[in-house]
Amino acid sequence: MIGKAGLRDLFYVDSAATSREEIGNPIYPPMERTLKNHGIECTGHRARQMTRADYDSYDLLIGADDENLYYMNRICGGDPEGKFSLLMDYTDRPGKEISDPWYTRDFERTYKDVVNGCEGLLDYLLNSYGM
Q1: What are 15-27's pLDDT values in tens digits?
Q2: CATH number of the domain at 8-125, please?
Q3: Which residue, 84, 109, 120, 123, could crosslink 91 as a Cys pair with Cβ 3.0–4.6 Å?
């Protein structure tokens, strides 16, 4: 999205796990297929663990669900600068969680939630920083 908006040089986006179960693993195959069906390539991506240093390195730290926020707070020792939010907070469904495909098996629904959240986040950033 930021590439299509011509803003790739203005943002650094990364992903990190709040648990250790998947560290080093590639994207879960059914989700990878869903992404590829939408033209998103993720070859070579491996899960990494979020660290306390991430708090100082990033302006925003965004979780998919309340469990993510809980562990983000534990890993970072709190959120004194108000950097934590849920991705769905940038949509018309603030406070809601992204549909978890691990339990629902509905990877398309998860994809739509993430796209909706990312579109809202990009709008928020563009409006907040006058871009």
Answers
A1: 999 998 888 888 8
A2: 3.40.50.2300
A3: 120
pTM value is 0.89
If phi > 0 it is left, if psi is from -120 to 50 it is alpha, else beta; for residue 82 that is left
Q: Are 88 and 117 in contact (CB under 8 A)?
A: yes
Neighbouring CB atoms inside 10 A of 63's CB total 22
Q: What are phi and psi of 45, to 5 degrees?
A: -70, 135
Q: Dihedrals φ, ψ of 7, to 5°?
A: -115, 15
CB contact at 8 A, 92 and 117: no
Q: Hey, how many other C-beta atoms are within 10 angstroms of the C-beta on 99? A: 19
Phi, psi angle pair for 83, to nearest 5°: -90, -15
Q: Is 85 helix (H, G, I), strand (E, B) or coil?
A: strand
In tens, the pLDDT along 58-89 reads 999 999 999 999 999 999 999 999 999 999 99
Q: What is the Cα–Cα distance from 89 to 29, expressed in whole angstroms?
A: 27
Helical H segments across 1-131, by residue range: 29-37, 53-57, 66-76, 101-104, 107-128
**Domain residue extents for the chain:** 8-125
